[in-house]
Design goal:
- The chain is an alpha+beta fold.
- 24% of the residues lie in helices and 12% in strands.
- It contains 1 helix and 3 strands; from the N terminus they run H-E-E-E.
- It has one helix at residues 8-36; strands at 74-79, 82-87, 95-96.
- The chain has a 3-stranded antiparallel beta sheet, with no helix packed on it.
- A hairpin with a 2-residue loop joins strand 1 and strand 2 (82-87).
- The termini are far apart.
């Protein structure tokens, strides 16, 4: 029979190796349990859906702009400098208004003249 002469350093290395492997296994088991019970939420393509499209009507004296008298069913408000929209039917869901490159449309609480443009 062969005898294993284990030194204290070898035993410490084995203990450290098993501690690291146990820790990693615990993380994997915890992640799998969270996934199984639905605590990890994955984003879906349905979560990022185009709700409505908007267009900008230019307010120029050369054009006669007609706006429908019917309400759109949406209201806009300014939060942290961005324009948010929400339906007026009582749903609490709101969305940020973005351009075609997903850049948020900024807003101000008061209308001030634009820099570099003469006011009329």
């Amino acid at each position: 029979m062969t005898e294993h002469n284990t030194t204290p350093e070898a035993e410490e290395q084995d203990i450290a190796k098993w501690c690291i492997l146990s820790f990693m296994g615990g993380i994997i088991v915890a992640a799998l349990a969270l996934e199984y019970y639905g605590f990890i939420q994955h984003t879906k393509d349905e979560d990022r859906v185009l709700i409505s499209e908007f267009k900008l009507l230019s307010l120029s004296p050369e054009r006669d702009i007609k706006v429908s008298p019917k309400m759109s069913g949406k209201e806009a408000f300014c939060v942290d400098g961005y324009l948010l929209l929400r339906p007026t039917n009582g749903n609490a869901v709101a969305g940020i208004l973005v351009d075609e490159k997903n850049r948020g449309v900024q807003c101000q609480h008061s209308l001030t003249p634009m820099a570099g443009k003469p006011s009329e």
